[in-house]
Records
---
Amino acid sequence: MSGTPRLGLGAKLKALLTGESRSAKGLTPDSWDDLEATLLGADFGPDVTDELIGTMRQRVGQLGAIDDDDFLRLLREILEEQLSRFDSTLRLSDRPAVILVVGVNGVGKTTTIGKVAKFISHAGRSVVIGAADTFRAAAVDQVATWASRAGVDIVRPQQDGQDPSSVAYQTVEFALRNETDVVIIDTAGRLHTKGGLMDELTKIRRVIEKQAPISEVLLVLDATTGQNGVRQAEAFLEHAGVTGLVLTKLDGSAKGGFVLAVQERTGIPIKLIGTGEGIDDLQGFSPVAFAAGLVA
Amino acid sequence: MATFGELSTRLTDALKNLRTKGKLSAADVDGTVREIRRALLDADVSLDVVKEFTAVVRERALSDDVNKALNPAQQVVQIVNDELVTILGGAGRRLEFAKKPPTVIMLAGLQGAGKTTLAGKLAKWLVKEKHTPLLVACDLQRPNAVTQLEVVAESAGAAIFAPEPGNGKGDPVKVAKDSIKYATDKQHDVVIIDTAGRLGVDAEMMKQAADIRKATNPDEVLFVIDAMIGQDAVATAQAFQQGVDFTGVVLSKLDGDARGGAALSVVSATGRPIIFASTGETLDDFEPFYPDRMASRILDLGDILTLIEQAQQAFDAEESARVQSKLASETFTLDDFLEQMQQIKKMGSLKGIMGMLPGANKMRDQLDNFDEREITRTEAIIRSMTPGERQNTKLLNGSRRLRIAKGSGTTVTDVNQLVTRFEQAAKMMKTVAKGGMPNMPGMPQMGHGGGSKGKKPQGKKASKSGNPAKRAAENAALAAGVKPGAAGSGGSGFGLGAGGKSTPSAEEMENLKKMLGGGL
């Protein structure tokens, strides 16, 4: 919303429902328009916004009289319900547990890997990172810096521009040899529209699975993304078999409302949340906390 | 560059109903406006901009001068186009250079927007334009951003100023300041400052960016923004406008699908023009941004100008002159065919090019099914032929075709298809080279240049012999007997799908050519 300070959804709704409590009938068409504007502004997208407003109207109708706190609580409940429909636990019981990290360019894959590595190694598990982003300039050095910050092993490509699949293979091989618990494979950012690059992901998957099953394929999504996030998820699901979402850059002003649509459309649960550039800025996904953030 | 594809499709859909109706009613306009609103929201255009946009379109669509017009639907398209151009920033703006070098360009934006990659693209482009850019590594935050810039600078053929190792060490403001002096000493005429990604809400980092700006007094501050960004685009753009007061916008990752709707928002929220579009992963995927062209592309009117420009860069004039003369002298061979295909590859994605052609939007689904590896397969087939075979496809008997199929990992059917396609293409090209109109299947025959030439009485006189070699010989003999004035180049006998009619062979064309002599 141009010109206005970035208020939370709740603050905005409070502003629109100022003070006195209203009956359901007291909610004017304008209030609903404002709710729509707020939801759209949080990147929920037109479809999900329509659905949410429909559900809200129904619930408000059932409840009859409603004040602004109820209105907010109701919205939060609806969001929580929708967000918690899927299981958001990371499955890392295989040994080694292989995590493949994928996503479009610049969403924060490498940073996320650094954080996940730190998190897992702090839980007492050994970790090795496979630097399979052999495309972007200095990507290997970047992930190596994160590996040393997290105090975990790294498998680097032996030469420039090496086939990422072979780096992934060597990383799993390393883990099997050294009995490392968790393998995290970094991949180059790729736009989901590039067929050849998406095929490359399928190949990486195939090559890894020759040695060990893949426990998790995490798709990293940037919270500032708009409705394109849904298409990204669909494409990556098709080519890489994504099992979980990581939502990054939630420390900014973007709300990341589009993930609701992603979850609904693809059935892939959100598993992790990134909230900054520090190595500890990572949280497990909690529907309650996330819904509260959306309706702060 | 299937830019704005979805928006384009949706608006086309929204306006389809309008196109089929003779007259505009208020209900028509409202329905259309609703579609446009939803399409724009789906494309991540900010709600405020959408409201403004649809209000203006509605008002203008309902005004009298539209209803009086001959074709109201076209007028609505025009209105939507006008408004899109207005929002996208009116006439395009170019990069401004300082009167006294060095010109200082500072890049700013969110994390992962593509600043470092853009720095490389900009540098490479400037090198091509005979400038001597200096890349300055002021992203001392992100691990190994400095290394990345070094690699990028090397492949762009530009110099780099990176006195600090980065990874959290060093003062970017000091680096930026020192770089200006360095550039003056070393006589670099453009300085490109790559800064760390920062969030609009991070006050400390925004202050640092403002300090870099103060220290270097840049001629251009470019705000790099991801074309995929959602509603947050406006808040972020405004934060950067307040923080560093950027002078222009660069839209990155435009090679993805759809989106870019945020571009409309950013421009309308800040009033700053989009100067460049970044469209791919290599350093050459970079072009000036043309608001008017982009707007007509949204409306599926095609982006012919960009297409022509790209084509011109890929095809050097000499090469095309050579092909032209080849065509005219009718020695167009599979080798030339191969070269042309490589030129097309150089031009960029075939899908991208097709996407820029008017009306191609309807073909988008087909395009998505089109496999660009087809070109690679064709290349493989041609490369499996001997030089002799490439010169003369007549040599290709069954056994040779089998050998070629095996050599290229294809089937004989594939080889047959290619040869047929090539022969048809060669014929069409000859016609074009002679100034005639190519005869396309399913299209009415058009007249060719030089009205004095009569139509060739091909259909009546041509031999109906089943043996191609015999037929060619007979036709040649027949043609030799025809007076020069009576022979033409664009006759209906060249029709691609000309069923039972015999088509002229290469030899025959050669003869015709000789007869026509200098008359071409």
---
Amino acid sequence: MKRFWGFVIKEFYHIFRDKRTMLILFGMPVVQMLLFGFVVTNEIKDIKIAILDYSKDNVTRELSHKILSSGYFVLDQYLDNSGQIEAAFRKGNVKEVVVFEPGFAEKVHKLGKANVQILADASDANTANLISNYTSAIVMDYVRKLNVNVITPMQIIPEVRMMYNEQLKGVYMFVPGIMAMILLLISALLTSISIVREKELGTMEILLVSPLKPIQIIIGKVTPYVLLSFINAGVIILLGNLVFGMPVQGSTILLLAECILFIILALSLGIFISTSTNSQQTAMFMSMFALMLPTILLSGFIFPIANMPLILQALCQLMPPRWFIVIVKNIMLKGTGFYYIWFETLILVLMTCFFIFLSYKKFKIRLE
Amino acid sequence: MFISAKNIFKNYGSTQALSDISFEVNKNELFGFIGPDGAGKTTLFRILTTLLLADKGSATINGWDVVNDFKTIRNNVGYMPGRFSLYQDLSVEENLTFFATIFGTTIEENYDLIRDIYVQIEPFKKRLAGKLSGGMKQKLALSCALIHAPELLVLDEPTTGVDAVSRKEFWEMLRNLRDKGITIIVSTPYMDEASLCDRVALMQNGKIMQIDTPQHIVGEFPRKLYAVRSSNMYSLKDDLLHFPEQHSVHLFGQYLHFTAREREADILGLRHYLEGKNHQNIIIEAIEPGIEDCFIELMTENSASNEN
């Protein structure tokens, strides 16, 4: 046991004396968290639009005003004729053009029907879809208010409520994903590099010719990172809460316990990577590409898994973060207890055992 | 016998690293493996320290088999690899403490053993190992390899890249350690260090050419050796090679070492021959052969017998 702690102390020296490791360990989580939180967002806010009003009467003016005062849109310019629409889109500032037909108010009042055309820049399909929906909704709302006194024979009014994220905040979606990504990346990257570095520097040779057992070397390597990554998890939760107002509805202790499980899984992945290669460069690339891209793309972090082709959906099930994100969302947003996430937890436990077993089998007690 | 190796073979792919290596080392002996880079010294040491498995053959250390009893061997051997393999970002003291701890001992417990070596680096004990000079690094590495009082010390090229003074000191330390009862095997590419060992094995291309005491090896040199010099060394070598009775000509520092086919050369005839080739200030002296002369002689014999 004394040998083991001697080893752990040595690892702490390595970590605290290497500026790069410290930067990755404590700088990266904060920077990524803030970057993702502020930059990557699909909320609609202050989209620039242009208005082409052939009618210029009280109704179109009211409608325009309603659109512009919604908070979603700001006016970039008024257009005079349809020839300018194309030019406005090409310049790139304007994402949507709203066109009112001539004699709009007159048609509304006399015929009970008038046309408004919504043109959106669909080179960014998602945004185009969102903003055209928002605009339509605003127009519909206006129409409903015009008809307050008219009794329509039959009405179905959907009352929508967004559970667990009433304001549809993007941050609620991202925090669990970022947490999964950061914990996985840092834990796997740093352990794999620190083990492979011993191989590269030749110190592994001496460690092997010592009475240390492979399991002592592996666990000694990992222990400091469990502690430090755990601190990281705390920092992320705290940042999410203080900066982005991300709540923790469920038990914080359960959340932290799940974080530790996930950290250990990530570390076992790191050990596995380190047993498969002898150079720091390869270890780094493997951690980056084999872990980062799948975490972002295949974990449901950004893109919903249910919308993927079947084969990719199956692949998603193999990604550890896919399960961790579900757990975190459940605890943080829904406030569920362990009873509802035992299955996901079990999968993470099994994955951890699998990688630890594999690494233990692959760990060489000799040089080749 | 403390170490005994029998018919060890080792290949890396199609490259033969070791071929039919057999030797024995007595307890309390300072045994040297002398040979150029690529002779197979490191591979052999790694097999003895249980880091590699031989393709064929067997070896025991103090009766422990290098394959089956690897755990016992790892507890009782101090190994110093060829490359500086300590933690550069740890201080001198931290490195030593670390190695003491993982071997389940403390610096104090075995301080007697390392004292002579450690006092030289103790003033720098707070300095990071990466910032030490080459000689001091080797002293630290030796201290770390010794801290658990091993019965056998395996040192792979400990003096490579170390200045002449430090090398001399280092060998003195090794002899002191041997006197304290530790068996030491050491490899080196420097032929002049052979004479500092109790016995040496001369290695070349994965084979052991000869094992004996340095004195015996030198004594068995089959010919008389001459150091030859003139004002024009470049053409001197060429001319000596064309001397009808020459057996070997090799450049050693400022002299050419020359042997004739007969045991003794006809010095007068040689001098006349060289004067005939317009050489001036000719010096021809009979000298005692060194290990390097023996090594080259053995090499030439081996390659000659291989060609036949």
